[in-house]
């Protein structure tokens, strides 16, 4: 799996957009970008994933650069409940049921939403 | 909708005592199931995964074992706990065959004293 680099911490004012960057310069053509977050003392929560097109769901938007070497997770209107550690993961999804979809989390970005 | 349950939420056990953590999933069939451990301030470490009843694969040698007696039940066990077994234990599920996300339970915080 390609290595990712994220800033260790970020602050964002409540109600503003939170933009979390991730560098994955060694990403290969069949690797997807995934984002998870972990609120303190809870299990990780899936947010979004993408291959090369920008993606949006009810939680966030994912912007992937054209060369796919970096991406940005956008929380459009951050709330206090968005305070968490955000993990960017790059990997090839398994396409069979005979393997292991192991997730490897790095240190992530600790996002603090400020009232 | 699918839900995943883990219990207990917290556990304090003495060294040398046995362990049994249970995870159950509702609302899906034949899920892939995973046990992870997260030590304080560290990332997730995959311990076991299962693609079906009775099918367990271990990622790292350790003092723990896992079993899957039913399709949506995953159990993590130990005969004798070590201090190094302390951590936050997370169960997760996914549907194989091209679905990309995993869904995690609330976790069990285990302290071995």
Written account of the structure:
The complex is a heterodimer of chains A (115) and B (113). With 115 residues, chain A is mainly beta. Helices cover 0% and strands 43% of the residues of chain A. In chain A, strand 5 and strand 6 form a beta hairpin. The radius of gyration of chain A is 14 Å and the shape is globular. The mean pLDDT of chain A is 89. Chain B is an all-beta fold and 113 residues long. Classes of the chains: A mainly beta (115), B mainly beta (113). Chains A and B meet through strand 4 of A and strand 4, strand 5, strand 9 and strand 10 of B.
Q: Top keywords for this entry?
A:
heterodimer; A: 115 residues; four-stranded antiparallel sheet; globular; B: 113 residues; mainly beta; seven-stranded mixed sheet; 0% helix
Radius of gyration of CA atoms of chain A, rounded to a whole number = 14 Å
Strand order of the largest sheet of chain A: 1-9-8-3-4
SS strand fraction of chain B = over 45%
Sketch the major β-sheet of chain B: 7 strands, mixed
- Largest Cβ-defined interface: A-B, 24 and 28 residues
Number of DSSP E strands of chain A: 9
Instruction: Report the structural category of chain A.
Output: mainly beta
Strand count, sense and barrel status of the largest sheet of chain A are:
5 strands, mixed
Low-confidence stretches of chain B: none
Q: Could you say which overall geometry of chain A the principal axes of the C-alpha atoms support?
A: globular
Please mark out the parts of chain A with pLDDT under 50 across 5 or more consecutive residues, or reply none: none
| Run of helices and strands of chain A | EEEEEEEEE
Q: What general form of chain B does the structure show?
A: globular
The helix content of chain B, as a percent range, equals under 10%
Mean pLDDT of chain A, as a whole number? 89
Layout of helices and strands:
The complex is a heterodimer of chains A (115) and B (113).
Chain A: E1 9-13, E2 18-23, E3 32-38, E4 45-50, E5 55-56, E6 61-64, E7 70-75, E8 84-91, E9 109-114
Chain B: E1 3-7, E2 10-13, E3 19-26, E4 32-38, E5 44-52, E6 55-58, E7 65-70, E8 73-78, E9 87-94, E10 103-104, E11 108-112
Parallel strand pairs in B: 2-11
Antiparallel strand pairs in B: 1-3, 3-8, 4-5, 4-9, 5-6, 7-8, 9-10, 9-11
